[in-house]
Every structure is written in C-alpha cells, then in structure tokens.
Design goal:
Layout: H1 25-29, H2 33-36, H3 40-78, H4 80-83, H5 86-109, E1 113-115, E2 121-123, H6 133-136, H7 138-171, H8 176-179, H9 182-199, H10 203-206, E3 207-212, E4 215-220, H11 223-269, H12 278-281, H13 287-322, H14 327-346, H15 351-358, H16 360-398
Helix pairs in contact: 3-5, 3-14, 3-15, 3-16, 5-7, 5-9, 7-9, 7-11, 7-13, 11-13, 13-14, 13-15, 15-16
C-alpha cells in the first residue's frame, strides 16, 4: 500500500481538527525564524512534518499490530496450558480490543490528505483506488470512529482489570484461584466489552458525511453533543481514569514483586536445613509466574505509551478552546498531539513483542504453532504432488 503513495508530502486528517496542511519548504528555508515565527508558512511546515510522521508511522504500525494480535490470539487459543488460565482469556480479549482500534485507525488512515495551493485536498493514496470510504460514505464515517472509540475504551478497562487481577495474585497468591475463576473472567470481559460498545456509539449521531466544495468529508455535525461525549468517553474513561489506575496498580505490583524477590534471596542465603522456603525458592518459575511478568510488562508499556498522549491531548484541547491567536503554541501542541498519538497507537500493536520477550511459555507455544504450519506445508506439498502425478498417469491410461 505504501508503494501507491503520491510523491507529495501530506497529512493525516483529524476528523475534528480541520487543520490546513499545505506548506512550502522553500518558503521556510528562505526566511529566518523571526520572519516566519507567526506566519502561515511556519505553522503549516511544522504541522506537515508531524502529519508526515503520523502517516508513514501508521504505514508500519497498523499491519504489524494486526498481524501480531492475530498471532497472539492463535497462540493462546491453540495452547491448552495458556487457554485454560484466566490470564490467557484476558489477553485474548485484549488482542481483540486492540485490533478493533487498529482497524478503525487504518480506515481513517486511508483518507489522509493534504491541501494544495488552491486549498483542494490531495490524498496520500490515489483516489482511483476508492479506499476512502471514511469520507465518501456516511456508514464508513460513523463506523470508523465507533471502532476507534469503543475499541480504545474496551482495551483500557481490560488492562485495568488485568492489573487488578495481578495485584490480587501477587498480594494474596493462595486466594486468587477462588477469586478469579474462568467463569467470572468471562462475565467481566463481556460486561467491559458491552460497556465499551455502548459508550462508543456516540459517533453515530455526532459525526457524518458532509459535501464540501472539493468533495465529501467526514465531519462533526453536532458540536455540543460530540464535545460532551468526547469529554466523558475519551478524556475521562479512556485516557485519564485508566491511566491513573494502571499507574497506581503497576507501582504497587512492582513493589510487591520487589519485596518477594528480596525474601527469596534471603531464603537462598540461608542453609537448606534452616530454611523451609529453600526448595520453593529454587523451583522452576511456573506458567502463572510467567503470566504475571508478561502482564506487568503490558501494564508498564501501557503507562509509558499512553500517559504522554493523555497529557498532550488535554493540553491540545485546552489550547484549541482558549488560545486561538497563538500560532506558536498551536504548532507545538499540534505536533506533540500527533506524535504522542502515534506512540499511543503503538500501545495497541506492541503486546505480541512483549509476550515473546517476557514469556518463555508463550515463545514455546508460538514456536510450536509456527512449526506445525511448516510441517503441514512439508506434508501437504508432497501429497498434492503425488495426487497430481497419479491423476496424470490415470489420464494417460484413459487416453
């Protein structure tokens, strides 16, 4: 898809920002900073740089994330040892939620464009491909943002639930089996998914396809309702509250794990005859312990990748509502919002790498899955070849 890009620089259009994006690099290079500090060329150039980073970054993040999430689901569902754990069920749901976000972001990515000197849209991808259903159809406009908002809300609260479960498992390891059962986890996943889908429905009555001079475009049609739902769903329940909860829970989990590690080291430093925990401390790490490490890694990456976007998003919203004439501040917040937005999207694509890095059980099961695929190909190909040769011989005999 990237090979079909136009040779011009462009932008990733934000459906609610409506920012102009044409800029001339020659204009910027031939002026000093003092000359264009508040000029349109200065604003558009640096906005364009941010938009280019976002567009070409999504060219990598989107396909990689969808493939990684698909592999994660296959590994967890094919492995009995991982599938039967409550952690495996949480991570399958998380992969589905993350894929929902990436699909929505990919739909919007297909409509990315810039404005030329005549203020007409020039799309990154050729219009002849007819891939821009985000702008050209009302259903595409609404579904795209529904997938983005509902999936991100679902993913955020699944991560919160994972952090809570791991906190219980670390703090009260003997009680976790009674508290977190597969049946209860399935009910919680269904409730979180239903809540995410319900709260993510607001694009169906707040955004729509509009006809403008240079063609159809997906825009906000009910500004007051969109702002209200955006403040509730996106700012509060998708960004702010989950980030605070995940940060606090992760810090507590890491501190408890650090204390447990010190106790194990103390047990190892004492003679086996004087320590009851010597055998336990030297035993092989269980699958459940590896799951805890994997989930802590997921929580840490979520905090690291989402907190910058949460801060930038709130600052950008405040600037757009108050400082309309401060172009320098507008450029800085716009650049930060788009760059951290790409980093936030990476959060939905990176979990497969974390599982491979921190979970030896997941790596083994993934290797088995890939090995089975290779073996199947090695078995099927000779079989098909023999069948074809037999058919040829049969045909020769018939003739």
């Amino acid at each position: 898809m990237c090979a079909l890009l136009n040779e011009t620089l462009g932008v990733d259009k934000n459906d609610s920002n409506g920012n102009d994006s044409y800029y001339s690099e020659r204009d910027v290079n031939t002026k000093s900073l003092s000359d264009y500090a508040l000029s349109e060329a200065y604003v558009n150039f640096y906005k364009g740089v941010a938009e280019d980073i976002l567009f070409y970054g999504m060219c990598i993040v989107g396909p990689f994330g969808l493939l990684g999430n698909l592999l994660s689901v296959c590994v967890f569902l094919r492995s009995p040892s991982l599938r039967r754990t409550t952690t495996g069920q949480w991570l399958v749901a998380l992969a589905i939620a993350d894929s929902t976000v990436l699909i929505g972001e990919t739909f919007r990515w297909l409509s990315s464009h810039r404005l030329d000197k005549n203020r007409k849209r020039v799309f990154y991808l050729s219009s002849s491909l007819r891939l821009n259903f985000h702008d050209t159809t009302s259903a595409g406009c609404k579904i795209t943002h529904f997938l983005r908002y509902s999936g991100s809300l679902w993913s955020a609260w699944i991560t919160v639930a994972i952090a809570v479960e791991r906190l219980i498992a670390v703090a009260w390891p003997l009680k976790i089996a009674d508290i977190s059962t597969p049946r209860r986890v399935q009910i919680l996943i269904a409730l979180i998914g239903f809540g995410g889908l319900a709260l993510g429905l607001f694009p169906f009555w707040t955004v729509d396809r509009l006809d403008e001079i240079d063609g159809a475009v997906c825009r906000i049609v009910n500004e007051s309702a969109y702002k209200l739902w955006n403040d509730i769903v996106i700012k509060s329940f998708t960004l702010s509250i989950p980030c605070v909860l995940i940060t606090v829970l992760t810090v507590v989990i890491v501190s408890l794990l650090y204390r447990a590690r010190n106790r194990r080291l103390a047990c190892l430093s004492t003679p086996p005859t004087m320590s009851r925990c010597h055998h336990t401390a030297t035993s092989v790490i269980s699958v459940e312990a590896q799951m805890t490490i994997m989930l802590v890694a997921v929580c840490v990456s979520t905090v690291a990748l989402r907190v910058p976007y949460t801060i930038a998003y709130h600052i950008r919203s405040h600037v757009r509502e108050t400082d309309h004439d401060n172009k320098t501040l507008d450029v800085i917040t716009y650049f930060a919002n788009l760059l951290t937005g790409l980093i936030n999207t990476i959060n939905y694509a990176v979990n497969f790498l974390l599982y491979c890095l921190w979970g030896s059980s997941f790596r083994k099961e993934c290797a088995k899955l890939l090995r089975c695929s290779v073996n199947d190909d090695q078995i099927i190909a000779p079989t098909v070849k023999r069948l074809l040769s037999n058919d040829v011989l049969s045909a020769d005999r018939i003739e």
